[in-house]
Amino acid sequence: MNKYRTGFQGELGAFSEMAVQAYFGDAAEPVPHGWFDDVFRAVDEGRCDYGMLPIENTLAGSIHVNYDLMQEHDQQIVGEIVLRIVHNLMAKPGVRPEELRRVQSHPKALEQCVRFFREHPSLKPETVYDTGGAAKMLGEGEDRDIGVIASTRAAERYGLEILEHGIEDNVQNYTRFLVLGREPEPPVGERLKTSIVFSMPHEPGTLFKAMSVFALRDISINKIESRPLVGSPWEYLFYLDFEGHADSLLCKRALNHLQEIATNFKLLGSYAEGSIVDRV
Amino acid sequence: MNKYRTGFQGELGAFSEMAVQAYFGDAAEPVPHGWFDDVFRAVDEGRCDYGMLPIENTLAGSIHVNYDLMQEHDQQIVGEIVLRIVHNLMAKPGVRPEELRRVQSHPKALEQCVRFFREHPSLKPETVYDTGGAAKMLGEGEDRDIGVIASTRAAERYGLEILEHGIEDNVQNYTRFLVLGREPEPPVGERLKTSIVFSMPHEPGTLFKAMSVFALRDISINKIESRPLVGSPWEYLFYLDFEGHADSLLCKRALNHLQEIATNFKLLGSYAEGSIVDRV
Fold first, then answer.
1. Residue B159 Cα, gap to closest chain A Cα (Å)
2. Which helix (H) or strand (E) covers residue B21, if one does?
């Protein structure tokens, strides 16, 4: 069976690769890329079937650049998955914790383990471009004084030993990933969601009117976020997720109604609500 | 005159230091800190008068962790400033662009200069914990094959020469910074803003009701963002900025009305709308 080639940003062992595995299981072949934009290009050009892109993290917020890339590349959201981000301290096998002097990871991961560094003042945090990349470099080298903060998957993949599991400050650390494809796909699942982006004049009451479109039809909103457009103080951009499929009669009516009010509107996709992967 | 000791995260030369200078001019002494949390502690303990914290970037989104820290430390927003983020390529004085092999910066900065790296495939991006830190290291060393992406301020401070100005992909790159203090302060300015955080049951129409509180009183909303609370699917957290001072009669009524609907509510502060600093 041909596997779905699924692009992600980062090295093998990155959290995005875990998301590919959690979503597709064995049906996908994860394909690492350097930049988010490379993933979109690979899908555009047919080198990948899907892209797996982080869109928001409960601590770090939304990744607007991926919203921009979705619009620029005109791709469709066809699925989602929410992954608990667990940071683990790992080292070369046999290394004792007291041998470590430096701990490498992506700065976002380091930032999320401040308590750990406060409790271990002798460990110097060092930044690397990617959690998976940090694990890869350590796995390929012989350094016994370097630890890495990364996923369990990275430890497996690069033959590292986990010294401490779950060293993140806040366990409410989840990343929501979107599965992007070239074409819309009929979603499989009970709970469907739709993501849109629209802009509105910046006047009192416009957002209230936009919300009325959904409230009057008892459609639940899952996410709303205004995006500041600096230099365009008279216009606002909104990202919105709501329950239901854009093709259902109720949602179709709501979206038609919204387009009476909005200055710009784009459907990003309808898809099944993703499961939350807690045990990683 | 005693200067306001103003804490920020990063090394001298970081964009946060530019924000301190842009906001306070010569009235402040910028005080570098390792983590965001260190800045909050310094303000709590009186070692700093103010903290200057990034809260959202037009490309990277909101920094939820700073919202969390604001609530945890019970500090007040007393001001804001919006800074255009311009990324510059710099090197040791006299170095020619063709001598460079590696370019160091914070991964967020590298990510925002993808086009530059595509046009210069011989340059290897390397991550460092901070744009200012990258400039500092280069300034202290002698490497002629290393370039750094950082602010004009970092170039000045560490004696580096700017080889190319404004190499970011997207000029719509602004960071909004908040000035935090221990106590509320009477805002000075014509346009006042208020920031709040509240939570609501996750039911159809609740957000509509919350928006009505402002729309019915012609109060403009500047920002809204829902924050997913994973594991609490029945409750949603919202960050909201609106025009006006919380102590004005109109806003006071709106906030009383909101508290009839919201399950939790916290005022983060009323302050003068910040200026947008474009020329950096």
1. 24
2. helix B15-24
Please give the average per-residue pLDDT across B108-122, as a whole number: 93
* Domain assignment present for B78: yes
Mean pLDDT score, B20-38:
95
Q: Is the pLDDT of residue A87 over 80?
A: yes
Which of the 8 DSSP states describes residue A10? B
Residue A246 lies in a domain: yes
Q: Do A111 and B231 touch (CB under 8 A)?
A: no
Task: Tell me what ipTM this predicted complex has.
Answer: 0.87
Which residues of B are designated catalytic? 175, 177
User: Of chain A residues 213-232, which have a CB less than 8 A from chain B?
Assistant: 214-215, 218-231
Structural domain of A261: 192-272
Q: Are residues B103 and B228 in the same domain?
A: no
- Pair (B53, B67) in one structural domain: yes
pLDDT the model gives residue A234? 72
Q: Could you tell me if B93 and B79 lie in one domain?
A: no
Decide if A35 and B214 are in contact by the 8 Å CB cutoff: no
d(CA B72, CA B93): 45
Domain identity same for A107 and A227: no
Evaluated on CA atoms B116, B119, B123, B127, the torsion sign reads positive
Q: Pick from A122, A147, A182: which residue ends a domain?
A: A182
pLDDT tens-place string over residues B219-256 = 999 999 998 777 676 788 999 999 999 999 999 999 99
Domain count, chain B: 3
For residue A97, pLDDT beyond 90: yes
Task: Tell me whether residue B188 is in a domain.
Answer: no
Q: What pTM value is reported for the model? A: 0.90
Instruction: List the single best residue of B62, B65, B261 to mutate versus A (max A Cβ within 10 A).
Output: B65
Closest in B60, B202, B226 to A224, CB measured: B226
With a CB cutoff of 8 Å and minimum separation 6, the contacts of A2 are none
A205 to B218: CB separation less than 8 angstroms, yes or no? yes
DSSP string spanning A203-264?
A: -TTHHHHHHHHHHTTTPPEEEEEEE--TT-TTEEEEEEEEES-TTSHHHHHHHHHHHHH-SE
A228 to B128: CB separation less than 8 angstroms, yes or no: no
Which of A41, A170, A207 to mutate: most B Cβ within 10 Å? A207
Same domain as B44, residue B178: yes
Structural domain contains residue B130: yes
Q: Name the domain boundary from A123, A147, A182.
A: A182
A208, A214, A215, A221: CA torsion to nearest 10:
-90
Question: Which two structure tokens, joined as six digits, stand for A59?
Answer: 């601590």
In chain A, what residues touch B205 (CB-CB under 8 Å)? 215, 218
Per-residue model confidence (pLDDT) at position B232: 72
Q: Which of A24, A36, A40, A175 is catalytic?
A: A175
Question: B1: pLDDT confidence band, cut at 50, 70 and 90?
Answer: low
